[in-house]
TrEMBL record:
Gene3D superfamilies documented for this protein: Carboxypeptidase-like, regulatory domain, TonB-dependent receptor, plug domain
Transmembrane portions of the chain: none
Family annotation (InterPro entries): Beta-barrel_TonB, CarboxyPept-like_regulatory, Plug_dom, Plug_dom_sf, TonB-dep_rcpt-like
GO BP, one annotated term: siderophore transmembrane transport
UniProt domain TonB-dependent receptor plug: residue ranges: 118-227
Entry's localization field: Cell outer membrane
Name of the protein in its database record: TonB-dependent receptor
GO cellular component, one term: cell outer membrane
Length: 917
């Protein structure tokens, strides 16, 4: 009993002591200019670890065990920092912050995996903040990337934008890395970034950083063309309910712009809710839905020559599908001559030259479903284990219907992608594991499906006297016999052979399309069944507490690709293919010369189980502080890329006797038997067919594909001039080795006699990934200037240029970029009485340039474009809402970012925003 009484006495003493020891500080922070609540402001105990953030109404509550008086340190980007002395807790604090210029204050993380000033970064880096996104005229942050210095994009459709830097621009770029909240955002099977498909929602972007050029030493394989690092909003920092509703219209004046889609509505709705529960727990939920009638690719340029559908019987339009089936009808003419020698006056003149005829193709509009839909949802839960350790669990899921361009146009219908993460992080370390899982849904492959539709309603040749080509030949001779000109005779022959054709939209066409596109490639259809998965685990530690004389960061990474396509994309008929990667990296940095010179170097070791030899990459940089906020930087970066899973292992039937193939010997020798049946370049085969001269045939030199690499040097200068002018200039030079490109080749399986090429039914075409033997160089330069004009007016301009030297003409290298870009922005984030008005406008100019699509889909000149986006906004302060009226490409002058991609017109919109941070 005495012990219990003693325990009660101790509790009575301790409890009041503990209660009195914990201080609860309440307050509110506002903008001194507008009296609006200041959200996401950092509130920290000076020289302590306790801290919190203001919520969406500027309120905060900070718990600390320190006795009064306490000094709070108040800070946020765009505001002057402030210290507040707290002597008593009798009433909530009311703190107002003065605005400060943002230029030169930006901080970045991705350049060196540590927080540092953007000005002092060792490599070129561009950044977008949530404030930039909030005031932009573009509809989404992926569109905003086009205005960043050094960044180029290919827009395949609404919802699918591929990003790159320093040339090599193409849809589905496997040499550009996209990191979202620490997770590689690539498709596990196809290995290219998924853009915004499972990226951050529009309301959840905290910041985006883009590293230009080589970045493998920090982020691993496939970082040759650059890396984009996107960070979502921390629910402890950004709280409350936010809503963004955009209603727009596109395809304006569609007939004038040769756009087959009538004027249509555009919808984009986003919602975010985040809540902190006590000091330990916070969560957020995000959702976004986009729906619109997509832009349509309708380039009718003939890929087989200068003629049109009316003048060239071998016409095959860029965005007409099915015309890839082409044959020389001379054998049918010879058969007709043998059956009726009296036709000699008509036939013999024709036999002097090849007479290639293509099947009739289908235009994209009415064939591919242009109803674009994207839905993604994200949830995240955070738990503070201690003041320095945090546990994070997140899940992101995306689905929808979009189109992207590769070796043909692909209708991604009902695709599903999920990304799930568990992470534990401290102030010096983190451990992260995540998985990405994809389901390709009912993807329609435009070119091969159209070819199969043509073969289904009428076979090209049935082996006897029937088929489309025999009918065509008979119609041609009948028309010539009646005195019709050769051009008109070909048109009459096509009309005859196309009788009974499955026309777009008819029950017959829809039945054939559905049957073929829903039958797996392995069973004679065109559906690929990609159910691949990626598993990743990584850890990093900053040894700054243990190593005092320099900064030391080290990390390890493990990754597993589980390739599962049911023999439709990879040779995985029996079981999924497992590809593993192992990595370790070390980064060292040291400041010397009174901390004015920062010397840094990074090393990374990577091993991929498909390849015998590991890769060691490195980066070294010098950043010299010339004087206050003036920095000179010099860097060397070595980057590499193991061939992507597609580049190594793809084995996809891509039409009649046509394959898209990786460059692994597993395919080239084991599957295609190139060692027994030699491949020749497709161009030389076609010359042989026309000339019957075997000397024009050129063998394709094949070898097992291997990693490609680049050595890049960059010299740059960044500075703040006064407090309102920021400049950055740079130049770079890169040397590429074992450059991976594509070549179109052909062989005759079952025969090594080149004469077999004369029979179009016996040879097979391949689009092969391979390493070029030449050393390829790229170089370029760039400059940017940002001006703070005062009163919230800001203007920015940038210019950049990229060039390719020593081009390997035997490869399709995807260096699809103009020699220069010019971008200009002018904006104001708050003007008028109480600063409730704002606006922004931007201009993007690109001259015309030559563009080649992988897989031989198309090549040609992309016209120059000058795109203007603009918006004006009004803020309802008391309702915490705003209205924006704007447009993208407001002149409605249609433009394209690449051959075979759609032409993009204006979108005019009205946006309602509630509680947008």
């Amino acid at each position: 009993m005495k012990k219990i009484a003693l325990l009660i006495q101790i509790l009575c003493i301790c409890v009041p002591f503990s209660l009195s020891a914990q201080q609860i500080i309440n307050g509110q922070v506002s903008n001194s200019s507008t009296s609006e609540p200041a959200y996401a402001v950092s509130i920290h105990v000076k020289n302590g670890k306790e801290g919190t953030f203001t919520d969406d109404r500027g309120r905060f509550q900070l718990k600390t065990n320190r006795p009064l008086p306490i000094t709070l340190y108040i800070s946020a980007i765009g505001y002057e920092s402030k210290e507040v002395l707290v002597n008593n807790l009798s009433s909530p604090l009311h703190i107002s912050l003065n605005l400060s210029p943002i230029l030169g204050q930006e901080v970045v993380v991705s350049a060196s995996r540590t927080v540092q000033s953007k000005l002092s970064a060792p490599v070129t880096i561009e950044q977008m903040s949530s404030k930039d996104i909030r005031n932009a005229a573009q509809l989404n942050y992926m569109d905003m990337l086009q205005g960043l210095r050094g960044v180029d994009v290919t827009v395949s459709s609404i919802g699918f934008t591929s990003v790159t830097t320093r040339g090599f621009n193409t849809s589905g770029n496997t040499n550009f890395t996209q990191i979202v909240d620490g997770m590689d955002n690539q498709a596990p099977g196809l290995n290219f970034p998924l853009g915004s498909v499972i990226g951050l929602t529009q309301l959840d972007v905290d910041n985006i950083e883009v590293l230009s050029g080589a970045s493998s030493a920090l982020y691993g394989s496939r970082g040759l063309n650059g890396t984009m690092v996107a960070t979502g909003k921390n629910p402890f920092k950004y709280q409350g309910l936010s809503v963004l509703v955009t209603q727009g219209v596109n395809h304006i004046n569609h007939k004038k712009n040769n756009d087959p889609v009538p004027t249509s509505p555009y919808y984009d709705w986003a919602i975010r809710y985040a809540k902190q529960m006590g000091n330990k727990i916070a969560f957020k939920i995000n959702g976004q839905y986009t729906q619109a009638k997509d832009w349509v690719a309708n380039d009718e340029t003939n890929k087989n020559g200068p003629g049109t559908a009316l003048t060239d019987p071998n016409y095959n339009g860029v965005n007409l599908y099915g015309g890839a089936t082409s044959t020389d009808i001379n054998p049918f003419l010879e058969g007709a001559l043998q059956g009726n020698p009296e036709l000699a006056p008509l036939i013999e003149p024709l036999l002097k030259n090849p007479n290639y005829v293509a099947r009739t193709g289908y235009p994209e509009y009415g064939y591919l479903d242009n109803r674009a839909k994207l839905f993604k949802i994200n949830g995240e839960f955070r738990y503070k284990v201690s003041t320095t350790i945090e546990a994070i669990a997140s899940a992101t899921f995306g689905t929808g219907n979009i189109v992207y361009t590769n070796d043909t146009r692909y209708q991604l219908k009902g695709f599903k992608v999920g990304q799930y993460r568990l992470e534990l992080r401290g102030d010096k370390w983190f451990f992260r594991t995540y998985t990405t899982q994809e389901n390709s849904g009912r993807t329609l492959v435009a070119g091969p499906t159209a070819q199969y539709i043509n073969e289904s309603w009428k076979t090209s040749y049935d082996g006897g006297t029937g088929g489309w080509y025999p009918e065509y030949t008979a119609g041609l001779l009948n028309a010539l016999a009646s005195g019709t000109s050769l051009t008109d005779a070909h048109l009459a022959a096509r009309t005859l052979a196309d009788q009974g054709r499955a026309e777009l939209g008819t029950p017959l066409f829809n039945r054939l399309k559905d049957s073929i596109s829903n039958t797996p490639i392995s069973q004679g259809g065109t559906l690929f069944l990609d159910r691949s998965k990626l598993y990743n685990a990584e850890a990093q530690y900053n040894f700054s507490d243990l190593v005092k004389f320099m900064q030391v960061i080290a990390g390890v990474n493990w990754r597993l690709y589980n390739l599962n396509s049911k023999n439709t994309l990879f040779p995985d008929k029996d079981k999924p293919i497992h590809v593993k990667e192992y990595s370790a990296y070390l980064q060292l940095a040291k400041k010397v010369l009174d901390d004015r010179l920062n010397i840094a170097t990074s090393f990374r070791y990577d091993k991929n189980t498909l390849f015998a030899q590991p890769k060691l990459t490195s980066r070294a940089s010098l950043v010299f502080d010339l004087f206050h906020q003036n920095y000179l930087r010099l860097s060397y970066q070595n980057a590499y890329s193991f061939p992507s899973n597609i580049q190594a292992l793809q084995n996809t039937l891509n039409g009649y006797n046509s394959y898209s193939s990786g460059g692994s010997s597993l395919l080239l020798i084991d599957n295609y038997q190139f060692d027994r049946y030699p491949p020749y370049t497709l161009e030389s085969v076609q010359k042989f067919q026309q000339s019957n001269d075997p000397t024009v045939l050129q063998k394709f030199k094949f070898d097992d594909i291997k990693p490609q690499s680049v050595n890049a040097f960059e010299l740059g200068y960044a500075a703040m001039l006064g407090k309102r002018v920021m400049i950055d200039v740079l130049g770079y030079f890169s040397t590429w080795k074992n450059f991976i490109g594509y070549a179109n080749v052909a062989n005759t399986p079952g025969s090594d006699d080149y004469n077999a090429f004369k029979d179009h039914a016996t040879y097979v075409q391949y689009n092969i990934a391979f390493n070029g033997g030449e050393t390829v160089n790229t170089y370029g330069y760039a400059a940017s200037i940002s001006l703070d004009l005062g009163r919230n007016f800001v203007t920015k301009a940038n210019y950049y240029s990229d060039y390719l030297k020593n081009k390997n003409n035997s490869q399709i290298n995807n260096f699809n970029t103009p020699h220069y870009h010019f971008n200009l922005e002018f904006a104001n984030s708050g003007f008028g009485k109480k600063q409730v008005w704002s606006f922004s406008t931007s201009l993007r100019y690109k001259p015309g340039y030559y563009y080649v699509v992988s897989g031989g889909l198309a090549a040609g000149q992309v016209p120059s474009s000058a795109v203007i986006d603009a918006q004006v906004s009004y803020k309802f302060v008391k309702a915490r809402s705003g209205i924006r009226i704007g447009g993208t490409n407001i002149t409605n002058k249609y433009y394209s970012t690449g051959i075979a991609n759609p032409r993009i017109g204006a979108v005019y919109y009205v946006t309602y925003a509630y509680n947008i941070f």
